[in-house]
Amino acid sequence: MKYVIAIIKPFKLDDVREALMGLGVQGLTVSEVKGFGRQKGQTEIYRGAEYSVSFLPKVKIELAVVDELVERAVETIQRTANTGRIGDGKVFVLDVAQAVRIRTGEAGDAAL
Amino acid sequence: MKYVIAIIKPFKLDDVREALMGLGVQGLTVSEVKGFGRQKGQTEIYRGAEYSVSFLPKVKIELAVVDELVERAVETIQRTANTGRIGDGKVFVLDVAQAVRIRTGEAGDAAL
Amino acid sequence: MKYVIAIIKPFKLDDVREALMGLGVQGLTVSEVKGFGRQKGQTEIYRGAEYSVSFLPKVKIELAVVDELVERAVETIQRTANTGRIGDGKVFVLDVAQAVRIRTGEAGDAAL
Amino acid sequence: MKHFGSAGGRAWGTALAAIGTLVASAGVALAQTAPAAAPAAPPAPKFDSGDTAWMLASTALVLLMTVPGLALYYGGMVRKMNVLATVMQSFAITCLVTVLWTVVGYSIAFTDGSGSTQPFIGDFSRVMLSGMGLNSVNSLASTIPESVYMTYQMTFAIITPALICGSIVDRMKFSALMWFIGLWSILVYSPIAHVVWDGNGYLAKLGVLDFAGGTVVHINSGVAGLVAALYLGKRKGYGTQPFHPHNLVFSLIGASLLWVGWFGFNAGSAVGANANAGMAMAVTQIATAMAGLAWMFTEWMVKGKPSVLGIISGAVAGLVGITPASGFVDPEGALVIGIACGVLCYFSATTLKNLLGYDDSLDAFGVHAVGGAIGALLTGVFARAAIGSGGKGTAGGLEGNWGQVLLQLEGIVGVAVFCAIGTLIILKVVDVVIGLRVDEEVERDGLDLALHGETVP
Amino acid sequence: MKHFGSAGGRAWGTALAAIGTLVASAGVALAQTAPAAAPAAPPAPKFDSGDTAWMLASTALVLLMTVPGLALYYGGMVRKMNVLATVMQSFAITCLVTVLWTVVGYSIAFTDGSGSTQPFIGDFSRVMLSGMGLNSVNSLASTIPESVYMTYQMTFAIITPALICGSIVDRMKFSALMWFIGLWSILVYSPIAHVVWDGNGYLAKLGVLDFAGGTVVHINSGVAGLVAALYLGKRKGYGTQPFHPHNLVFSLIGASLLWVGWFGFNAGSAVGANANAGMAMAVTQIATAMAGLAWMFTEWMVKGKPSVLGIISGAVAGLVGITPASGFVDPEGALVIGIACGVLCYFSATTLKNLLGYDDSLDAFGVHAVGGAIGALLTGVFARAAIGSGGKGTAGGLEGNWGQVLLQLEGIVGVAVFCAIGTLIILKVVDVVIGLRVDEEVERDGLDLALHGETVP
Amino acid sequence: MKHFGSAGGRAWGTALAAIGTLVASAGVALAQTAPAAAPAAPPAPKFDSGDTAWMLASTALVLLMTVPGLALYYGGMVRKMNVLATVMQSFAITCLVTVLWTVVGYSIAFTDGSGSTQPFIGDFSRVMLSGMGLNSVNSLASTIPESVYMTYQMTFAIITPALICGSIVDRMKFSALMWFIGLWSILVYSPIAHVVWDGNGYLAKLGVLDFAGGTVVHINSGVAGLVAALYLGKRKGYGTQPFHPHNLVFSLIGASLLWVGWFGFNAGSAVGANANAGMAMAVTQIATAMAGLAWMFTEWMVKGKPSVLGIISGAVAGLVGITPASGFVDPEGALVIGIACGVLCYFSATTLKNLLGYDDSLDAFGVHAVGGAIGALLTGVFARAAIGSGGKGTAGGLEGNWGQVLLQLEGIVGVAVFCAIGTLIILKVVDVVIGLRVDEEVERDGLDLALHGETVP
Ligand SMILES: Nc1ncnc2c1ncn2[C@@H]1O[C@H](COP(=O)(O)OP(=O)(O)O)[C@@H](O)[C@H]1O
Ligand SMILES: Nc1ncnc2c1ncn2[C@@H]1O[C@H](COP(=O)(O)OP(=O)(O)O)[C@@H](O)[C@H]1O
Ligand SMILES: Nc1ncnc2c1ncn2[C@@H]1O[C@H](COP(=O)(O)OP(=O)(O)O)[C@@H](O)[C@H]1O
User: Fold this and answer.
1) Pairing between β-strand C56-65 and β-strand C2-8 as defined by DSSP bridges
2) pLDDT tens digits for E415-425?
3) Given ligand 1 and candidates C26, C102, C104, C109, which is best to mutate, with the most ligand atoms within 8 Å of its CB?
4) Is the peptide bond prior to D68 cis by the omega test (within 30 degrees of 0)?
5) H or E element: which one contains E254?
6) Is the pLDDT of residue E28 over 70?
7) pTM for this entry
8) Ligand 3 contact, B62 CB (< 6 A)
9) What residues in chain D have per-residue pLDDT under 70?
10) Which of D116, D261, D93, D102 is nearest to D163 (CA)?
11) Closest C-alpha residue for ligand 2 atom 8
């Protein structure tokens, strides 16, 4: 099982979620994050002070997927979240040592 | 050392934290996330528009634990956060390559 | 490639970001989290009720870095975020199995 | 002391009977609707435009107290998942009571009535406000149009039940609340308003002093709140889980608007733009500020920190305490009332509540009933003949008339007992018919989404 | 019926010509500035201090409706990324229209005018408010200083275009909005205010009843909103993505302040502190509450839950509906108007909008135009001779004068058509010159940061 | 020019001596408490109910400016961790100053005084408001009860020190603030109010025009703010870290309530519901809107974007600027004052502040002192004899009386210098006794939790 972490543009969330569902993904977890990268933010001005916004709003998606699905999941995210513009984000894949479903105590792939 | 990521129902946070403390866990980090899964959300209605709430509020707990504790930590979380109802959440365990305590620079298990 | 997760005090964020940039890090992702640990919070009082604030505001930084940089990145974070006071936080390093840049589809180190 | 003897007991018994009559005859009255013919227009009365201007403005100010004032004051104090449900209560009650007051509430409270029920309720001559035309006048407000007085009093009828919500937030069904408040407004509020304020009212005739509603509004709502809190029981997790107030900035806005609006409440109760109104405004401001400081410093000493929630609670306690007194006392009396309310309400909302263990969630009882009672009693102490009624007022204890304090006590006890019984009966009926409390899961996950299908960020 | 024949048509044609004249002559007038000499001061008029007090207070109340009232009502309903852009619109329009009204708007709307344009626009004698001194009086408000009446009417001129924004949020350029509103205020609002309210106005002379602005303010803004929404097209993602309202607590504050401020709007339209004002306040309160309940219960039945957004929308619908009627109907009429507006606006803002598929984002049309039209028509039905004009008012349908309903219909149609044409022309011009809509990316990522360089947390 | 010679210097020296006397004798006076006997009631004066109605309403409006207006205006601009501490300051100052004004402040400011101190302070005859009964009248407000005038002036005494907080947020101890403001209110505010507004006041006698407080309120608070900002030093991280305003929606609500409430401030300063009040309201509205636009367009040109913070800052600058002028100028003067304040305050709060490098955190100086000075000077230019004092007013420069501009300058300088010295002394004393600034760690992690034990979400 792998743990996929994707940082994407916020307005792409619903598309990505639906595309993953289409793939058979049953669950995922989402959080609001701020991203710093090549994409440069705009400037916020407050009276005398100007701040260049170095952090841009992004959405982080985390999902554990069974090994067979990982490749397609990553590819699906990459394709769906893509706008071709700088700042589209990244996908990282990590190994999972164990997984448990809290409701039932099921472990391993059955936990998903 | 392992990195335990648990997605639980928000109102269980305090119980879980206390149970983990009882186990000897010294620290953990918490964030508010939105979860998508088998549990279906309610419908929000705004004048003409209805949105089925596909994302439900969840809490994510992250904690690094020494190898000896992992099993018990996972089991404790599973037991404490359990309500038996759909949407109780998941626990994932990942490998940690290294850990450092910022205050002292201590590394490895001593960092926790 | 490694995935570095650092929990730091919020007011250190800008320093850490700049120090990492100086090292050649191109991107990172930040989220607001609440930390529980040795550092004890203050007490909040609402009329008759007193709550000891067990969770303190922290900032979580996540960044994927190429293997060559990991050590220096961790060390830089540790040094910059350090105040010498309890509650300074932790750095954890995890292995990354794969990374993809959404905009281009580039994989591996080129994704960063 | 005689008022506490059998005569007093009998009188309050009659009150309950009067309410019975009310319930019975209301149906009839509503069926016939009102005696449609507006009385042959009398010669147009000469209204005072200045008095009318102030009462129009006061009406707006008192409405501002409930929406958005009270909505925000309460809404900011509950947990995030119940914020919308809480502000919804104030807003919906504003709508509901407006309609009920139009249909029957005003008629019960502010018409003369007749016979043995006269000391307790009015009659049905103003059902649907029939007969209230451009030229009509209520005898309690002779220099302004009746339409203004009716609307002004309506805003009091609105805020009183809305205050009760402070005791029952986080756990009462919205549907049950609507029934409870609707019945309470007609069966408890209107009669008590009649008893205390109408010229024929039982307590008014006794000489109980209540300028702007210490008994009618605050003791009444606070006692009803306590009864409801006890009936409903505690919120799940009360005392064990942290109940973090969502956003005290909202509460501070609410408290501020309560303060500003209270000028309409107290100075408006002079029913004119005159020196009585001016003095009522002055003492309101002084007592409120003093009570805010008193609560703040008490908390600072006891707990080590002065909090936003503390100072605004203190200010509200001061506003409550000066309410019955505002037309009768001078600035020095106001300072004392302020200190008393700030300090004592602090302890009643913290120590006392914790001691007795009931979950009066946002302290409708601890602040409104306790503050109202303190204010009503101290009115009896500090009333000055030179201040009340344009200078021909009742003297209080300090001017030698200690009997007034006993009278005030009778007012407090009478209203509290009547209110407690009425509230309990209504709660029981609603509970049996549709149930009062939300499901455990709804309570745990928040009322906003479950009851109203909405959330705040 | 004759008003719908050719005479009526010609009249409205003249109206457009009058506006042409206006545009042409405005330049000239502004160039010459105003006939500087203030008329030799006539003997100081004796103002009524009570009436003046109430109109000063009313002016403050109506300003409160737009800032912060409307700003919050709308701001709370849009997505988080557009909150500041939305509140900015109300605030900037307040500033812009104040200046334009000073420069020329008041003069167009509330001076006598002359010749064939007189039924449609005034003249330029009050450009830059020249000649408005301490002693001057507007004939529509004889007991108060003209400065008060001018400022009071200014607040109406402010809120009307601000209401339009409900239809165009989330997608219109701020610069384009400034131009659009500026032109609209002068070329559409001022003439319509003259037509309906000035003694020489075309609709005023016909006998169309509009106490406080059902046509001038609500139908006008609502129709302009619809035209703008259709012209701009839908927001990206409308109907497919969830558009989560940022924070309905803000909307509830806004709705509450609209309610409170509306007392100044409706009761203030009596231009004095008298029984007419009192009755207007009473019926405003009653219709609003009734409409809030009506929308809430309708939604509860249809959708299963009573929502905060629902009850506040209903209350606003009731405020809109009672606006034209408030000086003419009694409490029973108010209850009917309230129910009608609550129920029908619910369906117009939900079912009807979804059916027809336009993106009237925050329902400026669905609530204001529809509610305004319902209110204007029902004014014709429920107007009572004993209520209007200090007791010497126009009778409505229920008192036998059904012709009034047709008159009201002419008022509605006349204003709607004129407004629609004027709005369309202005939009087209601004679109051609600077473009109306923001870039797709700006719309997607939010207007706050892109247009104003700021964000909310 | 003579007023700047030695006579003027001596006069201001006496002022400081008068304050010395004040400090000394206050203790005595308070010990004796007040001459308890209320003067044998004179025949009841005939108050004007319309004037009284407007002044009651105005008092409510001015209170609304501070709570919640100013609290929100400032609270929305600071970082999230200091929001509650900031709103707490406004609320606590409201309470504190109310009590101090009751005890001694009103007496110092608005009684006649005697002897050589008369031009600078009053006497102690109204300590504890003794002698203020239903029939008493203040000679500055002859048509309304003294209780109303006292409370009205109290709201000015409240907002002035609350404005200072804009300069010192994020770093001053709450306890130190209470001491500082308490002393400042008695020793700086009350004397200056006497000097400028009391019939016997030094500047009043000279003929300095300040209708509603350009010097007393705005220059006074702005200068005090600057002195405090300089004394305290910059906030940690100022200029290097981003200080993100918590929520500008709160600031916009605050600015809007300031605007609405300012009608009570300026039009209320006519102390009656008359044509002067009407004109003051009109010019207030016009100057505010013009300044809002002026700041917005300046920022738009300079920085490329019109911001919410910009337009609301401009509006506040306009309100400040028109304050001294509001009873004296006509709409054209108002437009010029609006433009001047909008543009110049923009540069003073941005360019000038950055240039000089002080950390006047929320620009109490840059907006209030600068705007107040601009307004005070331009009052001298644009005052029209036909507008002031019911038509018998002072002419300004444009009507030939350029000497008035110099007089105004003397007023500005006199107030600024006196205020600066007084403020500095008080700060020094409080600093030595209990220390002014919070610990570095508290400043870094936020005042909300450390000082008040509360947080916002
Ligand atoms: N090394 C990294 N580790 C973690 N997150 C990253 C990293 N680099 C970029 N990100 C995240 O991806 C987002 C997009 O990256 P950016 O460099 O702006 O554009 P792109 O993905 O097109 O190269 C960033 O805002 C940040 O949230
Ligand atoms: N594959 C997954 N990866 C990450 N998080 C998941 C995954 N599946 C579920 N979750 C998280 O767990 C929560 C509960 O899952 P759900 O399927 O609703 O119920 P259950 O845990 O009872 O099977 C989800 O809301 C989501 O936050
Ligand atoms: N085992 C852990 N796993 C994850 N996060 C931790 C762990 N221990 C501590 N933290 C995080 O680090 C923060 C600081 O830890 P704390 O024990 O208070 O101080 P220190 O880092 O100085 O030892 C905590 O608030 C928490 O967010």
Assistant:
1) antiparallel
2) 999 999 999 99
3) C26
4) yes
5) helix E248-266
6) no
7) 0.95
8) yes
9) 1-13, 15-16, 18-43
10) D93
11) A27
